[in-house]
Amino acid sequence: MILKLALNGLKKKQRDYAILFTGLIISIAVFYMFLTLSLNKEFILQNSVINNIQLVFLVGTVMLSVITFFYLFYTNSFLLSLRKKEYGLYELIGAKKIQIRRVFQIETMAITGISLIIGLILGIILSRVVSWLLMNQLNIEFTQFKAVYLPAVFWTMIYFLVTSFITSSIHNLWLTKISIIELLRSEVQNDLLPEKPKNAALMIFLGLFLLAIGYVALYFMEILRFIGLFTAPIATTLGTYVLFVALLPIIVRKWKRNKRVNFKGINSFTSGQLNFRLSSLKWVLATIALLIALSAGAIAGGFAFKNDAFTSIDEHWQYDATLYNPGAAEMAVLDSIPVEEQLTFRMKLNDEFIYLVQEELNASPPLIRDMVTYEVVRPDPLPEKLDIEDGNQIVSDQWFTALYAINPALEGTRSTRIVPLEEYELAEGEEISILLARTSDFSAHIEEWQKLDELQLNVYPDLVSGFDPEIDSVATKYAQFKTQYAIASGTFFMGFFLGLAFLTMMASILMFKILSGANNDIRRYDSLRKLGVRRRLLENSIYREILIVFLFPGLLGLLHVFIGMRMFTFIMDEPYYRLWVSILIFLAIYSGYYFFTVYLYRKIVLPKH
Amino acid sequence: MKTILKAKNVTKTYGKKGTAAYTAISDLSFSMNEGEFIGIMGPSGSGKTTLLNMVATLDPLTDGEITIDGISVSSMNENQLSDFRSQKLGFIFQDFNLLENMTVFENIALPLALQNKKLDKIQASVHQVASLLGISDITEKYPAELSGGQKQRTAIARALIHEPTLLLADEPTGALDSKNAATLLDTLADLNKERKVSILMVTHDPRSASYCSRLLFIKDGKLDHELFSAGTREEFHQEILAVLGDLDRRPVAGVRS
């Protein structure tokens, strides 16, 4: 009987249940997606440039769990609000409290169970699609990553079942205390009147002050170091909360005070709705602003890391290719790309020495990065006579760097002798030519560099005794880039996953909070319709109202990201690189949610045509 | 005397095609002159609210025609109907239908704001109608802070501010105690007498009905009886009770020719 009641409850109010299920399924899918990554230790450790990446994921998991807990609490109280009146009726006709509590618990668990099945399937599909897209984009195969990951399935199920049990138990406690009459009347509840903000000016000042401190700490993180690392998150978080709590009601109040605007068309209704909504949602909105910042930051950070693989390689390597004894094949590849500068040097190699021609070096000194000034320069001409100390020729620091740039494979393996041409001609040893080539954009010709590296593998065994192409490698710009890029891609992949999960979760919470209050609004829109407000106007009002609710956390969240990204300057060169891409992703997801919310909200509050 | 409302052979049937249709109003005709205070009475399920909703243009007719102020409402599209309601009609509902997220002032001002009237005009009108109804000192409050009587007076103010051709009231005293109900009906009667506001009110309460100048009794979707107020309100009240008693005694609906 009780089971029948419970299932009957599900059948009615399909639309509201659709919202409830959508909310749950999204959160399950996101939670699962996140766990496929965070539980996969092998993958995390092998693909990260960050030492404490596991800590990052641990913190991420805890945060997501906490957020999801509150989210499930909201969804559960939404379920309760749907059922209150009916429970009151059951009680009125003699059902015992314990029976009603059991009905509620069964309903909650049934809904969670169904959502888990669909949510996990969706989560698997999403993980597969996202990882496939990313791997294609990055041209990298992450074999350790698994879209169907059993530990993640297991823990997602455990988490959601246990949390559902806890939230429904909390609500059951509430059900035992409440009287029948309150249950029956629950549908005609009024929203709480928004309080008049106290000390608003002081609060806003405090909020701005805290935000300013947080921003300064973020901006000067390089200098402040540990102080900044602690101050920034605390001050920014506090500032965001204080500002939202104080500022949002004030903004609507100011708005309403502009009577010419307020008493135009349906504006007074829209601002009235906002007045109530913003003051009841201010805590949620502040939380969302912060998490938007974190998730957009994670995506942007991933992009920046990936870019860093390109920019940092250019710092250490001024020449894109260093070719030993280049043959026709190598020259053909070089001819196919726009080479900006090409230098050729000769060297003679015997067991003891590497001979280089002084005139050649002086005629075309290669570009290097000066280790002191950190600028890209060409070394000054070599002096006529170079002293020899302890069997080594003494050259300037700049030339020391230059010699490694010219001869990365062999420099240091034996003593280098820079000699005049005549002396060079007399010297004994095998002659080798070295070609340095530079283009304006290393990243534009990755395939060619790879090809050149492969061709050179045939040359190395002649140069380096005992070189085995299968095992050994020679330091080249491309080889180093490849290693860096693989790690950076892994970091990018993780940042993207992490950010996407949080972003989806955030927007979904906002959507759910708005929709769960929509039932109370049906009456209002019905009244307006009766009073003769055109449907178009009502729709406009809905679009504007929800837009503003979405706008505030979005704006502040983005501002946090803009400032916060600077913090990464101490580990990478261009933290703002392609920030717009992550902002675009954020905007796409966020505006998708906005339109979806408006669509569902309209379906709830406006009658069919 | 100008005719402001004319209902001709109005019929309303509910039910989808293929299912048993239920006739709520059948072939009903009446007309209303400017300045009249008409009450519609009848037992539950007799179709009074259906009739009011059709006059209010909230519910389309199945057959027949309703003309308000010379305009036929059945030919209008959704937007025209909305505009018509906002300009020609004023509404008072049993549950007030105030917008809880707006102050009393904003609630009253809404019909004028919707017509994009100038702010000065809106403010002047709101003050005028609020003082007429004795709610000038609560205009900055929200509906949740008001008593039932205050809410209903706010609703009346909102229904009157744009000077509608016709004021429609659906059980306006339904949620009020007898003292507040009496005050409200006095207000409506005053508005009708002194400001010549035309009122069409649905009620099942004989006491409320006695404030009207004419009563239409509906039974089973048809006009069953018509009653004019001639003497004092108390006499009218007694007459109404007599008619109601008579209606109850006849088990099958009487048909008027």
From TrEMBL, chain A:
Q: Which organism is it from?
A: Planococcus halotolerans
Domain of life per record: Bacteria
- Name the residues that span the membrane: 17-35, 55-74, 109-134, 154-175, 200-220, 226-252, 283-305, 492-515, 546-565, 577-601
Protein name (record): ABC transporter permease
Output a single Gene Ontology CC term carried by this record.
plasma membrane
Where in or outside the cell it occurs: the entry states: Cell membrane
The protein's topology relative to the membrane is: Multi-pass membrane protein
Give the similarity note.
Belongs to the ABC-4 integral membrane protein family.
GO process terms (BP): transmembrane transport
Q: Please give the InterPro entries that the UniProt record associates with this protein.
A: ABC-4_Integral_Memb_Prot (IPR052536), ABC3_permease_C (IPR003838), ABC_permease_BceB-typ (IPR027022)
UniProt KW Transmembrane helix keyword: yes
What keyword terms does UniProt attach to this protein? Cell membrane, Membrane, Transmembrane, Transmembrane helix, Transport
Q: Does the keyword Transmembrane helix apply?
A: yes
Tell me the ranges covered by the ABC3 transporter permease C-terminal domain, including all copies: 61-169
TrEMBL record, chain B:
Any GO MF annotation of the entry: transmembrane transporter activity
The name this protein goes by in its record: Bacitracin ABC transporter ATP-binding protein
SUPFAM superfamilies membership: P-loop containing nucleoside triphosphate hydrolases
The ABC transporter domain covers which part of the protein?
A: 5-245
Q: Name one GO cellular component term.
A: membrane protein complex
Q: Which PROSITE patterns match?
A: ABC_TRANSPORTER_2
The record's family statement is: Belongs to the ABC transporter superfamily.
| InterPro entries referenced in this protein's UniProt entry, alphabetically | AAA+_ATPase (IPR003593), ABC_transporter-like_ATP-bd (IPR003439), MacB-like_ATP-bd (IPR017911), P-loop_NTPase (IPR027417)
Instruction: Please provide an example of a Pfam family that matches this protein in its UniProt record.
Output: ABC_tran
